[in-house]
Amino acid sequence: MVNYIVSGLERSGTSMMMQILKMGGMKVAYDDKRPPDEHNPRGYFELEGGKIINRLIDGSFPIEMYDGMVIKVTAYGLRYLPDGYDYKVIYMLRDIDEIMASMSKMLNENLGDEDRRAFENLNKFALKIMRIREDMEYITVNYRDVIEHPRREIEMVNDFLGGVLDVESAVRAVDPALYRNRKENIVKEVNK
Amino acid sequence: MSEKQENKRRYTTVSIPTTLFKKIERRIEGTGFTSVSSYVTYVLREILAEDENGKEPFSKEDEERVKERLRALGYLE
Fold it and tell me: What is the pLDDT of residues B60-73, one digit of tens each?
């Protein structure tokens, strides 16, 4: 069996991808420890209230319980996924300015260049880890592409997953209204 | 299991000094690593993930900053 992972930097569209896979008919594992809020109105789709990484680090996360299911492990947690399993990772990519803008709103604090560089480097590192790990297959999916061309992108994901998705249903999980931190708007705000 | 999966699961042995093995055994006590092999695999992957020029793409400074932000965002304890 395979453990399916949705990953990417925080605020890169990982929750949207979890919804897509759920609507598409996959078994998606999450709990209700972290309720939906204004930043993720449809929910975070996380285990352990989003703190799964801590349990991966200390080796206490029972990944064997999620065989054949989809779980969300954001970029920093990928290096801590244990050996002995096969992973298929859907890794979300999003413009770094949009990610920084979204994080800044969540934190109510403007993140600076050092934050941007650190998260960019984490993104590169996560991609490299996936290339190196012989137990991982992965696909990268661009957040904006999913919003603008949901059917095309979901069909690509479906190919990667071996054709298990109900694409018609999965497409309905994409809500362009939730794409709020658009780069063009961020630029406009800066230029005001 | 497909041939591809069998290939992915293939392991081999590497010899290391017994004293080093015992040091690693002591080091991983109480950590998330369940064996010396899993620890050595982790360390080797980290080295391979370094840039070709030897510079880490994700430095300790980057990591501390990311961890600080992830704690504030509720993704890390």
Answer: 999 999 999 999 98
